[in-house]
Amino acid sequence: MIKEERRIVYDEELEIETITFNGIHQPFTKHFHDYYVIGIIRKGNRKLVCNSTNYNIQKNNILLINPNDYHECVDVDEESLDYSAIHISKKIMNNLVNEIFKSKNIAIFNKNVICDDSLFKEIEFLSNLIVSNIKTLEKEELFYMILKELLENYADFKTIDEDIMLKTKEVCEYIENNYTSNITLDKLAKVGAISKYHLIRLFTKEKGITPYKYLELYRINQAKNMLQQNNSIIDISIQCGFSDQSHFTNLFKETIGITPKQYQIIFEERTNKNE
User: Fold this and answer.
1) Model pTM greater than 0.70?
2) Among 19, 151, 214, 230, which residue has the least CB neighbours within 10 Å?
3) pLDDT digits over 105-125, tens only?
4) What is the secondary structure of 110-153 as a DSSP string?
5) What is the Cα–Cα distance from 7 to 132, expressed in whole angstroms?
6) Is 41 exposed, middle or buried (0-12, 13-18, 19+ CB in 10 A)?
7) Cβ contacts of 210 within 8 Å, gap of 6 or more
């Protein structure tokens, strides 16, 4: 039986994260991320549903997932999944779009699944360089070349609505400053100076997710930081505002792909290795 392997590595030079899954059978129920995902299927057959569109994905496919794209992924046969992915924050992607194309527009991938053997090999090689913690000019060049090709061929660009952006920014800041509290829709509407209905509509238009989903995602991101500090999982679930540890664990695994304990162990091993 193939041993299951899950790894997460953060590249401080590129400011991106890469994950590697080998030999897994886990279904990923409907969830979303607050970052871009560029993934490659190295082995396995799966069914992907992204924004209500069905895909049959297989070896050598490239996955392109935008922030807040709702998606789920399940096995279609007995073969295990080998998968690698690069995670790019919205801030870093916006900086790259500005740097590469001299544009302040927001990039949106217009295809979720593509077949491009050359790009597949480049993404796989870049992922391996990051996992190996190699600091090379080649790695940085490759990252830029991959992003330029993906954005030119598989992305559209949307302009920013300044008024909506300002209102959602104020609401996001309130959520981020009060994520441990019981946040109400009434309070968020007052912060944004609009009605509750219009808050949900405008926020979802700008962010692609509801205020509540944004709150859950922000709590998960804060929990990730706390787990890296080796804090108690029970304490983290309470401090991040989750109703109970079970809810925290289930949501964390659905969002990140591993349990909070597995995530913590990965960083413990990396810390011990560097000492």
Assistant:
1) yes
2) 230
3) 889 999 999 999 999 999 999
4) S-SEEE-HHHHHHHHHHHHHHHTT---HHHHHHHHHHHHHHHHH
5) 12
6) buried
7) 200, 203, 204
Angle at CA of residue 263, ends 207 and 270, nearest 5°: 120
For the segment 167-195, the average pLDDT, to the nearest whole number, is 91
**Rounded to an integer, what distance in angstroms lies between the CA atom of residue 204 and that of residue 213?**
10
Cα separation, 141 vs 268, in Å, equals: 31
Both structure tokens of 227: 């787990």
**How many residues are listed for the chain in this entry?**
275
pLDDT higher than threshold 80 for residue 161: no
Phi, psi of 239 (to 5 degrees): -65, -30
Chain segment 12-67, per-residue pLDDT in tens: 899 999 999 999 988 887 788 889 999 999 999 999 999 889 999 999 999 999 98
